[in-house]
């Protein structure tokens, strides 16, 4: 049961380092210089976004046989592992158009939008499809986002400049590859049960 919490936490925390939402957190921290409303905005936006993503993953899991779901998850985890190796860039207008709403609302809107179609949202869909405890998956992916983003908000550019982003991206890709291998193992265990 705790695997449904800890694996998503670790996967998303690793995948989020160097991600565009982490860059967005850095920009928001520099712009508003008020960490608490930014952190609260990240929490609310991530819970809402990942709840929707987790619900989608949970729903998809019920549509397919365990064999087809396992092979689909394996292929998806491989794709996200490769995607994780590509550094993210933040579009200038992604954070600038909402500044007039204050730190909490700006962060809430910007983070929710930035997470749409992002690798951590896709990972949340896949993890919710793989693990049976939907709420724990959503809490785990949200916790992973906070582990990666709260330090950036609190210490700003200091931490971001000193992190070995290439190494961290590679570790995250390896974690997704391990999940792909596990999904393949599960598919082989299901054998011919379509």
UniProtKB/TrEMBL annotation:
It is found in: Membrane. GO terms for molecular function: metal ion transmembrane transporter activity. The chain crosses the membrane at residues 36-57, 63-86, 134-155, 167-188. GO terms for cellular component: membrane. It is a multi-pass membrane protein. InterPro entries: GDT1-like. Its main location: membrane. It holds the Pfam family GDT1. The keyword Transmembrane applies. Keywords: Membrane, Transmembrane, Transmembrane helix. Belongs to the GDT1 family. This is GDT1 family protein. It comes from Pseudomonas borbori.
């Amino acid at each position: 049961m705790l695997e449904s919490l800890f694996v998503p936490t670790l996967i998303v925390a690793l995948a989020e380092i160097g991600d565009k939402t982490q860059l967005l957190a850095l920009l928001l921290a520099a712009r508003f210089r008020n960490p608490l409303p930014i952190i609260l905005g990240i929490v609310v936006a991530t819970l809402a976004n990942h709840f929707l993503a987790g619900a989608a993953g949970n729903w998809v899991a019920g549509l397919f046989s365990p064999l087809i779901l396992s092979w689909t998850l394996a292929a998806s985890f491989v794709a996200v592992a490769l995607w994780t190796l590509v550094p993210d860039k933040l579009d200038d207008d992604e954070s600038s158009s909402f500044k007039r709403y204050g730190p909490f609302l700006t962060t809430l809107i910007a983070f929710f939008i930035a997470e749409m179609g992002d690798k951590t949202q896709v990972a949340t869909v896949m993890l919710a499809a793989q693990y049976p405890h939907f709420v724990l998956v959503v809490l785990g992916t949200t916790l992973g986002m906070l582990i990666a983003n709260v330090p950036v908000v609190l210490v700003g550019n200091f931490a971001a400049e000193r992190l070995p982003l290439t190494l961290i991206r590679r570790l995250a890709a390896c974690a997704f590859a391990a999940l792909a291998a596990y999904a393949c193992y599960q598919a082989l265990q299901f054998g011919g049960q379509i």
